[in-house]
Input
Amino acid sequence: MISIGFVNPQAQAVVFDLNIHTEDKIVKITSYKDGLPTYTKLEGLKFSYQGIIKEFPDLADKTVAEAKVMGLERFKEHLKKFKTERELVMYLVDDLKKHNYEARQIIKKGFRPMTIKTYLAMVKT
Output
């Protein structure tokens, strides 16, 4: 189990708790608003309709609700492709970077926090 902490320029923080051995891979998502944590599972992610259509153009003819459900299912299927923890971490770091989130630290199995750079140097494969 690892946790990755992200922050964006508006000082919004998000922590992803990951477990490569579970079905959805993302076990819990914690976001902080006004210093208070809110917890959700993968289904609690907020997908924008425009983002779903950008990733999956074939869903453009679906209603907003249908597109969100189908987009979430496809996202879950995409997560299943990652065989290693490092692949999943790199995917999240690269994907959230597009949305102005910077990965700050990673905590693995209860050890002290480390930078993403240090983590990636430790797990080369």
Remarks:
- The CA atoms of residues 18 and 28 lie 7 Å apart.
- The chain is about 35% helix and 25% strand.
- Strands lie at 2-7, 13-18, 26-33, 36-40, 102-108.
- The chain has a mean pLDDT of 82.
